[in-house]
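It is worth pausing here to work through a concrete case rather than discussing structure prediction in the abstract. The textbook approach is simple: state the sequence, then state the predicted structure, then interpret. We follow exactly that order.
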Amino acid sequence: MVSARINIRWRAVVRHRWRLLAGCLLIALHQACEAVVPIVIGETVDLAVATGSPARLITWIGLLCGLYLLLTTAYRNGARQLMRALAEESHALRLEVAAKVLDPRAEVRTGDVLTISTTDADHASYLLDYVPRIVGALVATAVSAVGLCLISVPLGLVVLIGTPLVLIALQRAAPGITRRVATRQEVAGRASSLATDLVTGLRPLRGIGAQEAADARYREVSDESLRATLAAARTQGVFLAASNSVSTLLAGGIAILAGWFALTGRISPGELITVIGLAAFLTEPFGALSAAPSWIATARASADRIAELLGSTPAPPPTGTPPIRPAAGECLGVVAETDAATIVQLYDDGSPDVLVAPHHPELFSGTIRDNIVLAADHELAEALRASAADDVVRAHPEGLDHSIAERGSALSGGQRQRLALARALLARPKLLVLHDPTTAVDAVTEHAIARGIRDLRHGPGSGLGTLIVTTSPALLAVTDRVVVLRDGRIVATGTHASLAALDPAYRAAVLR
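Step two, the predicted structure:
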């Protein structure tokens, strides 16, 4: 579900309007000075060199040096303003993307996050560089056209008429480039997501012998990404080749026409030098204006992907109250025949007395100790035993100081579950809600964990409550009572043993 999209490009312009304005003015000044240089050189030839006047030669050379000092200063300060704006915008976009995907209700593929927060954020922010380059190119073209008109009206008209015609023709290719770039980024995101999922689940894949099928699937998506990349590159390459050719031909045509005018005596040697200099100089602004549709198309495609992510509306949290809460000191089992995940979310009310441990454990890069330690050492040892995570610690020579890769990708699913459970047990909340905490461990370990949870949280005099949403007989067997939910309503209650003996639906759901 997508709300009204944010106009990323317009917002970037508004957000950095003063730096962008300063950058545009300074870059425009730089380009105007660049265009004036051939004019000054031509005048130097006609008014100083041709007349043999040392004083005039010194004057015009001094003017040329001042011109170079001005254009260099303008460019350095303009580029500094624009690079600052570009860096701040790309950083701001990455922060917005990160804030969006950190919403626990957001449903975003990992690969999309990677490409959007890196490539797309950069391409979208490059708009702040493209705008002044286009403005500078237009100013350079206008100043050059005026200079050429002062020498020869036909030469000026070639620039004033030819440039818009070329830009209009090239602009027709922009939508195709936008589509190709958007497709490339979308497919690259899918490939990155799949690669991340495969690396994370490498151990289970090996365990079921599915690594060859996974490898084939990744090759398929990778090949699709390659084809999309090559298609986008071909489109952009053809466009750039055409635009460079046209701009070079236009500049070359001006030089050839000027040569003819010089041969027929219509312009002076100094004016010929000016025209040749301007023709050579115009290849740069012509090239920038010709490439502008490709630049804008790329920035637009990336901005649209960012806008789609930022404008997406996460799934609304479940509403209502939890159907049942354990009494103080009670270990309560819940068998949810439907919508178990939704039932678990109802308990996540932000209360400091309630901890909801999700079914999918989240680990971060660091050591085992960094991932679970929240209290003193003796409590840590108890939590490790109760969760059977002490086996994970003993499996590594470094023990608690063993390094864990991001998301625990080097650990098996069962090891990740046990470490996450140890962390939850160590927090000692008044109410701990667990959702299928043992689905990735073997039966022996599962029984040990069930008994460990019971012993750690529900010893004599304990006032702690534990609610376990599961269909595991081992976990349900250690609870004080079990509640069966259907569509959020209680349909049966009793001990695990009594329900297993008297309720056929319960037996079908939990006994395996």
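Step three, interpretation. DSSP finds 19 helices and eight strands in the chain. The beta strands are 331-336, 354-357, 366-367, 403-404, 431-435, 465-469, 481-486, 489-494.
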